[in-house]
Write a structure and sequence with these properties.
The complex is a heterodimer of chains A (600) and B (636). Chain A has 600 residues and is α/β, with parallel strands linked by helices. Helix content of chain A is 30%, strand content 25%. In chain A, the strands form 6 sheets. In chain A, strands 6-5-4-3-2-1-22 form a 7-stranded mixed β-sheet. A 7-stranded mixed β-sheet of chain A has the order 7-8-9-10-11-20-21, with helices on one face. In chain A, strands 14-13-15-12-16-19 form a 6-stranded parallel β-sheet, with helices on both faces. In chain A, helix 3 packs across helix 5 and helix 4 runs antiparallel to helix 5. In chain B, strand 25 and strand 26 form a beta hairpin. The radius of gyration of chain B is 35 Å and the shape is elongated. Classes of the chains: A alpha/beta (600), B alpha/beta (636). Chain B: It is found in: Cytoplasm; Nucleus.
């Protein structure tokens, strides 16, 4: 029985280092290749030795697909392709291909230059890895090989994020990556057609959350920032350089403009300008409103937001700073946090999800005394706020997507086990489909019943129709033909055509049975009696009396002859081919019973 | 399972609604779907009209009315004479595709191949009862919108009270001088649409990407492929499981800014419809660009102005790129370049955001991230300035000598009319024609006599006949269908047998208002089979249930297999003996053998490809013998 197998190497009942292996129709596909922000050791990358211990990865994988540029989805890519070794194709959208190497380089710098890690991937490796990338368009059907095809759908979430359909023959899997079902200030909502995959693999970051209206959240955010600035405090907003950062920048920019505020807003990294440039060039990936107005006013040209310099952190007076990275686990955001944490006038707003183990996660879970490097203890007096601005679908959104795609089953990844459990029940109840949530390294196996498309010759099809039965697209029916398989091409043809194509002659098998009848009349009269008898019995068959005295039933021939010895007996020769076996045999037994007495 | 069977031969038809080979409009009836391929608008009709000047032109308004030879001047309000040519003094009109040949409200979908081939869309979608969907790529729609916006703007901003119609009367038209006398389909000529109609038409478009498979009613799949000619330009594959039509329209194998042409996907076509080849098969686009640059430099150096009548998108991007590389070396850095169009700004901005539709080189730039086209830098350094019209800012910025890119290439409307009037009298100035859609001599006719220099550098990057012949060899379609113009050399070069399509079997040609039956030999249809046969159903025949009596008539609808092979007599006899038959006698005959079972009074004739069992009515015996024979044969 054919089956689909799914094994998460990362993101199984966890958020971080997304990496999911899928086997479908004899093809192996790896979905995402991320790193884990919560670990600094071996566990930060997926365990690729699961795929093969000593063989080449290229021999075991048909392709790799990257859903978007966040490091927890692509951070392990250069390690995977250049250090472990993979030379096959890597698929991603154009914006992801553009931005991914920049974030990887950033990540590498922090790991090697700041933390002094050895044996990390190099800049050259990132370049070599990106050479293996094949960019895909939205909705383009990419033929990976003759059988495996993939197709990208818009996912919202961040610039260039995509969901992918993976299809072999009639079997398919959809992988969502991270997605957002509500449009925001700069991106549109995820969308997929009713593609009815065998399996939908969906993220479930906010499996239990139903978020209130976005407008309220935005108002709340602006109010908090405004209050802090009014009382002279400094506001730190840890973000990732691309994604939420642009969303919040647009929000603050318009607010500052409207309220005519003067407190400076800074954006911390050198990436900003570059990042905004990407948004300008890939404006077709943003939402409709921005696309429509970009000629008149480009939303990514900010008036109030300026580049940050490290020295500004000690400036007196209020300010708002966007700093990277978003989970306060390293870099500039963490530095500023340490500087400002001691003052209760200040505020830190965490606009997104924080992985376990990060400073962000600790302060969000209420910890106010943090142990830093060198056993130093940092007391957090500043106000800590959490605001879900990450562009993930909430429970409602996930259910909505399941409804859109109509999968036969659902598999949850990229979330916490407890929350998944809740969503799993909900999906099973509402959609009556089975739902899985494997842990890392655990394999889910789904049996499938693939359809086998074949080409039927028109001749055969017409013969079927000539029997008066119109084909019904939904009901199976039995028909006789010969299946010819050639170069993975299946054709169903009539037996005659099959013989002809194979250059074979037909062998005719014919039977002639002698049936003895007691009848003293002349042969012609006997034949006539046989004719009227059969005519009355076999109403659904074509019974004919031919001029030469013989009788036919369909193609079965009956002739009456005198008996050589007994004039009171006539011999009926019933002759038919093997193809008329049933009727021929039926006729002989019918005739054996004799003819009814003639009325005369 | 798809089992739609109908009279398959007659329903594969091509209805040809346009006579213009590069502005096609065909309707394909394919497997009970009706698909319109492109929606081109023939604008050469406007050449018969007087230009619409933006600024009152005393010369044009004082042209004498035209009168018949006998002096009858009843047409002098409608027709004006200028340097021996007669023009219609009216709002210019366009020649629409045929609307009577087929009921256009039955069209299910319209496939657009590039932004030049969608200009008739509002006429079709808004005035024929069309209720279907239009498919096009995003750049095609965005730039197509700009072209339409510009056209509407050009026409609407010069309101003309007069609309001439008398001359169209068949009896009167006969009396007019050429080319008016020979103008075709004048009754179908229409005025330009409105912006409202444009918006409504464009709202019916669904965006598609290259290699996207779009299912139409489950029976047909259509797919756009990159055609290499313009931003977002596509060829289309229209296929069912066993038939494939390729629609090739406006394709290019030259490396300019768009993504290269996808040729491989066109293979294995039953029919390839070929339209939109180069209109200037004898001109090499690269050479033309060189000539363009040198003529431009020459004029400017001599203190003259250069006028380039052009569309607001397309070749202009390539020209600006060439000039970007050329101006410094040619010492033109101080010469201002002006691009005047109501959509100039939008066109320049849009060109920078379609990274995914560009050639590889330009895509790589976006990854840096840098704008893919260097005209961004020309704008930044103030070398290129763009204006919505010559009114307003332009008049104060305007410095001479200069280079002006502006529309419309027909020279009948748009800002170009003003520049022709302004610069036409000086031989220092030059007008350089780069767009191939209009005959430059005809375009210039209402401006004669003219002192300015006229240079003709048509740049048409679409396929030439050598490339077509290569392409056809490569993709090997079973049949080629093309406009009749491509099956003979151009009228002006009738000796050039190389300037036509040469293929085997010869291409089927079409002309306006013709219907072609497409040659399909359909032999297969798709079904799905199940891994296991379903439980044998008790088949109710004729809708009535019958009880299953023992002597019921057998179900003959289940076919017995055909047999093949031959029966080796010796082995057959051995098998008979093994099964307890004795007294077996074998006789040779001319064609084979006869096996006699004397005891059972049974005779078996065995020949190379037939076996005949003749026996008494002993069913048991017959069945035993039958099964023995079957063991030696293959079943089909």
């Amino acid at each position: 029985m054919p089956e689909i197998r799914v094994t998460p190497l990362g993101a199984g009942q966890d958020v971080g280092r997304s990496c999911i292996l899928v086997s479908i129709g004899g093809k192996n596909v790896m979905l995402d290749c991320g790193m884990h922000m919560g670990f600094n050791d071996d566990r930060r990358f997926p365990d690729f030795s699961y795929i093969t211990r000593n063989g080449r990865l290229t021999d075991f994988l048909d392709c790799v697909i990257i859903s978007h540029f966040h490091l927890d989805h692509c951070g392990a890519l250069p390690y995977f392709s250049e250090m472990v070794g993979y030379d096959g194709p890597i698929y991603m959208t154009h914006p992801t291909q553009a931005i991914c190497p920049i974030l990887l380089e950033d990540y590498r710098k922090i790991a090697v230059d700041k933390k002094g890690e050895a044996n990390f991937f190099t800049s050259q490796m990132i370049k070599d890895c990106m050479k293996k990338v094949v960019a895909v368009h939205l909705h383009q059907t990419v033929q990976v090989d003759d059988e495996l095809e993939i197709k990208a759908y818009y996912a919202g979430h961040v610039l260039g994020a995509a969901m992918f359909q993976i299809k072999v023959g009639s079997e398919s899997v959809v992988y969502t990556g991270d997605y957002n079902m509500t449009p925001d200030r700069h991106l549109g909502a995820a969308w997929i057609d009713k593609c009815r995959p065998n399996l939908l693999i969906t993220e479930s970051t906010y499996a239990t959350t139903i978020r209130d209206s976005k407008r309220c959240r935005e108002r709340d955010f602006l109010k908090k920032v405004h209050e802090a600035v009014e009382r002279g405090g400094k506001v730190l907003i840890p973000v990732f350089a691309l994604g939420r950062a642009q969303e919040l920048c647009i929000l603050l920019e318009t607010f500052w403009e409207r309220m005519n505020l003067k407190a400076p807003i800074y954006f911390s990294t050198g990436l900003t300008e570059k990042a905004n440039h990407y948004y300008k060039l890939f404006i077709t990936w943003t939402n409709q409103k921005i696309r429509k107005t970009f000629v008149q006013r480009n939303m990514f040209e900010f008036k109030h937001i300026k580049a940050f310099d490290r020295a500004f952190a000690d400036n007196p007076g209020p300010m708002v700073v966007f700093a990277t990275p978003g989970m306060l686990h390293a870099g500039q955001s963490l530095q500023i946090f340490r500087k400002w944490a001691g003052n209760e006038k200040n505020m830190v707003i965490m606009p997104g999800y924080c992985v376990q183990g990060t400073v962000g996660h600790k302060i969000l879970s209420g910890q106010r005394k943090l142990e830093m490097e060198g056993r130093q203890v940092l007391e957090v007096k500043m106000q800590v706020e959490y605001m879900s601005f990450s562009a993930h679908a909430d429970a409602k959104g996930i259910m909505q997507l399941v409804g859109q795609a109509e999968p036969e089953s659902v598999l949850l990844v990229h979330g916490e086990a407890k929350k998944m459990e809740f969503l799993k029940q909900k999906i099973e109840q509402e959609f009556r489909v089975s739902c899985y949530m494997p842990a890392n390294g655990e394999t889910v196996t789904l049996p499938t019943s693939p359809s086998i498309p074949v080409g039927i010759s028109l001749g055969l099809l017409k013969r079927e129709m000539a029997q008066g039965l119109l084909p019904d697209a939904k009901k199976p029916r039995l028909l006789h033909g010969t299946l010819i398989m050639k170069d993975s091409n299946f054709r169903l043809v009539s037996s005659e055509q099959a013989l002809k194509e194979l250059g074979l002659a037909e062998h005719q098998l014919r039977f002639t049975c002698r049936v003895h009848l007691h009848d003293p009349r002349k042969e012609q009269e006997t034949a006539m009696r046989v004719y009227s008898h059969l005519k009355s019995v076999l109403k659904e068959h074509c019974v004919q009396h031919l001029p030469d005295g013989s009788v036919t039933v369909e193609s079965i021939l009956i002739q009456a002859a005198a008996h050589s010895e007994d004039p009171g007996t006539k011999v009926l020769l019933v002759s038919w081919t093997y193809q008329d076996e049933e009727l021929g045999s039926h006729l002989t037994s019918l005739l054996k019973k004799g003819l009814p007495q003639a009325a005369s | 399972m798809c089992l739609v069977l109908s009279n398959q031969k007659s329903n594969m038809k091509l209805y040809c609604l346009s006579g213009h080979p590069t502005l096609p409009c065909n309707v394909l009836k394919f497997k009970s779907t009706t698909i319109m391929l492109d929606c081109g608008l023939d604008m050469t009709s406007t050449l018969n009209f007087l230009p619409l000047p933006l600024v009152q032109s005393p010369r044009l308004s004082n042209l004498p009315g035209w009168s018949l030879k006998d002096g009858n001047a009843f047409l002098d309000k409608e027709l004006k004479e200028c340097s021996g040519h007669v023009f219609v003094d009216s709002v210019p009109e366009f020649c629409l595709p045929e609307t009577e040949l087929i009921d256009l409200s039955t069209v299910d979908v319209i496939l657009i191949s590039n932004y030049h081939c969608m200009m008739a869309l509002p006429y079709i979608t808004e005035h024929t009862g069309f209720t279907g969907t239009v498919y096009a790529t995003e750049p095609t729609v965005q730039i197509g919108r700009l072209l339409m916006e510009e056209l509407v703007n050009f026409i609407e901003r010069v309101p003309k009270a007069q609309s001439a119609s008398l001359w169209k009367n068949k009896d009167i038209q006969r009396l007019l001088p050429s080319p008016l006398k020979d103008a075709v389909e004048v009754s179908t000529w229409r005025r330009c649409y409105t912006m409202q109609e444009v918006n409504s038409a464009l709202s019916k478009i669904q965006l598609v990407g290259y290699s996207q498979k779009i299912e139409l009613f489950g029976a047909v799949q259509v797919t756009p492929l990159s055609s290499g000619y313009a931003l977002g330009s596509s060829n289309w594959i229209i296929q069912s499981h066993y038939e494939k039509v390729s629609y090739v329209s406006g394709s290019s194998l030259l490396t300019t800014h768009p993504q290269p042409m996808d040729q491989a996907s066109l293979k294995n076509s039953d029919v390839l419809v070929l339209t939109g080849l180069t209109q200037i098969p004898t001109a090499n686009p690269d050479g033309m660009v060189g000539e363009f640059c040198s003529n431009l430099a020459l004029t400017v150096r001599n203190g003259g102005n250069v006028l380039v009548p052009c569309y607001p998108s397309g070749v202009i991007y390539d020209l600006l790129e060439c000039l970007y590389q050329y101006i410094d070396s040619a010492g033109l850095s101080n010469i201002p370049f002006y691009f005047i169009s109501p959509v100039a700004n939008s066109s320049l901005e849009f060109s920078q955001i379609f990274a995914e539709w560009l050639c590889h080189n330009k895509q790589t730039k976006v990854y840096l991230p840098e704008p893919p086209f260097p005209h961004a830098e020309l704008i930044q350094t103030n070398k290129l300035k763009h204006y919505p019209s010559l009114h307003g800012d332009f008049s104060s910025d305007f410095r001479q000598p200069c280079v002006v890119f502006t529309g419309h290439p027909s020279l009948r409307f748009g800002d170009v009319v003003h520049f022709m009037e302004l610069w036409g009298k000086s031989s220092l100035n030059t007008v350089i024609f780069t767009e191939p859609d209009f005959s430059y001599l005809e375009a210039l006719a209402p401006y004669q006599p003219l002192a300015m220099k006229c240079i003709y550098c048509p740049i048409d990057t679409r396929l030439n006949f050598i490339q077509v012949s290569k392409l056809l060899k490569e993709v090997q379609p079973l049949h080629v269908v093309c406009p009749e113009q491509y099956t003979q050399p151009p009228p002006a070069q009738s000796h050039r047998m190389d300037l036509m399509i040469d293929c085997q079997p010869p291409a089927m040609s079409y002309r306006r208002a013709e219907v072609l039956a497409l040659p399909f030999k359909r032999r297969y249809e798709k079904i799905e089979i199940m891994p296991e046969p379903p439980p044998r159903p008790t088949q109710p025949t004729g809708g009535k249930k019958r009880k299953r009596a023992s002597d019921d008539i057998p179900d003959c609808k289940v076919l017995k297999p055909l047999l093949s092979g031959s029966i080796p007599v010796e082995q057959f006899v051995q098998a008979l003996e093994k099964h307890g038959f004795s007294d077996i006698k074998v006789e040779d005959t001319a064609k084979g053998h006869i096996v006699l079972l004397q005891e059972a009074e049974t005779l078996i004739q065995i020949e190379e490809d037939s076996t005949h069992i003749i026996c008494d009515n002993d069913e048991m015996l017959r069945v035993r013998l039958r099964d023995l024979v079957l063991k030696f044969l293959q079943k089909f």
